[in-house]
């Protein structure tokens, strides 16, 4: 019985010494931080005031509960923020992807459809304008040619009229040659030469007047039969001149009518070219408007992409900062919670009256 009692006393003494060493270690650990020192100071003041131990225990336990609740709220709020961050990141990345697709599709449409279409229309207008220029060139050339032809016609008619007058003079002169003198014969021969001068060598009547001159050169005009033959030849020659005048006048009228018809055709062709240009211009205007619209849309979507990218970068940076803040707060709460639990163990020890801060 004595042996058992001795063993019990030794055990109690040993336990007290262990508790004393543990308490000293906890006190030392608490003094390493401002928060721990503040709690120890509170314990010391409470011990000096002789307040109830349970009251101090309750206060520290309430502090521990507050820290646990704050830590739990911190965890909850950060999880909510993380969910918001992940959702926003997914949304912004999708917005960026959609904007990139819109920019690429729009640029593809511009490069492969609208820009080539505009070039085709511009080339078509240039081709039609070249046709118009050729048309006006033909128009101007036709006028110049017609004017030249008309001048030639008027010159030929003038020559023929002069020849007719010369023939009439020769016929009038023949009427006076009953017993012609040498001077009269010479005058008549000169009259025939004058007719020859009026008729160009390229004229179809040139051989006829040459034959008359040859005939008259070998005559003394004393034979009235010869004179009658010359008169008949001159009348035939005059009729041929008049027929030529009539034929050339008719040909000139026909040429003028053909010319005017040709000019009308050129004008109609030119007007048709202009109608074609107008139609192509309508298409070109619509194409340019579509290009402007799609270019504006492309630029806007590219601006959206840049904006979304900036927002995503800002969100990632903000979330990284908030994560650092959360980690620091969590570490602080965890540390304070551990310190509070250590302080509670000090208060719950058998004797803390000798604690000094």
Automatic annotation (TrEMBL):
Record flagged with keyword Coiled coil: yes
Sorted UniProt keywords: Coiled coil, Signal
Taxonomic superkingdom: Eukaryota
Coiled-coil intervals, chain numbering: 53-84, 252-283
N-terminal signal peptide: 1-20
The protein's name: Trichocyst matrix protein
Species the sequence originates in: Paramecium tetraurelia
């Amino acid at each position: 019985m004595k042996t058992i009692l001795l063993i019990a006393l030794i055990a109690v003494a040993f336990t007290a010494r262990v508790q004393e060493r543990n308490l000293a270690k906890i006190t030392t650990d608490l003094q390493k931080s401002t928060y721990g020192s503040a709690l120890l100071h509170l314990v010391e003041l409470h011990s000096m005031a002789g307040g109830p131990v349970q009251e101090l225990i309750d206060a520290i336990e309430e502090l521990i509960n507050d820290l646990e609740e704050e830590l739990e709220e911190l965890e909850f709020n950060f999880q909510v923020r993380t969910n918001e961050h992940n959702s926003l990141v997914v949304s912004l990345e999708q917005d960026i992807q959609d904007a990139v697709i819109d920019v690429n599709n729009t640029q593809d449409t511009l490069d492969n459809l609208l820009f080539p279409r505009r070039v085709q229309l511009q080339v078509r207008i240039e081709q039609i304008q070249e046709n118009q220029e050729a048309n006006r060139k033909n128009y101007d050339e036709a006028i110049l040619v017609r004017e030249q032809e008309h001048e030639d016609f008027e010159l030929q008619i003038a020559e023929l009229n002069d020849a007719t007058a010369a023939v009439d003079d020769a016929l009038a002169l023949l009427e006076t040659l009953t017993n012609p003198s040498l001077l009269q014969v010479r005058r008549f021969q000169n009259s025939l030469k004058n007719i020859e001068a009026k008729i160009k060598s390229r004229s179809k009547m040139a051989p006829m007047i040459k034959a008359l001159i040859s005939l008259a050169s070998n005559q003394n005009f004393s034979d009235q039969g010869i004179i009658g033959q010359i008169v008949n030849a001159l009348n035939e020659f005059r009729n041929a001149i008049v027929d030529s005048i009539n034929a050339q006048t008719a040909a000139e009228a026909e040429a003028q009518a053909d010319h005017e018809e040709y000019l009308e055709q050129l004008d109609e062709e030119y007007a048709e070219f202009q109608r074609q240009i107008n139609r192509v211009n309508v298409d070109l205007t619509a194409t340019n408007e579509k290009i402007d619209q799609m270019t504006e849309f492309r630029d806007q979507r590219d601006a959206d992409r840049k904006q979304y990218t900036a927002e995503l970068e800002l969100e990632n940076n903000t979330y990284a900062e908030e994560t650092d803040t959360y980690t620091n707060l969590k570490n602080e709460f965890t540390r304070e919670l551990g310190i509070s639990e250590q302080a509670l163990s000090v208060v719950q020890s058998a004797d803390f009256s000798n604690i000094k801060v």
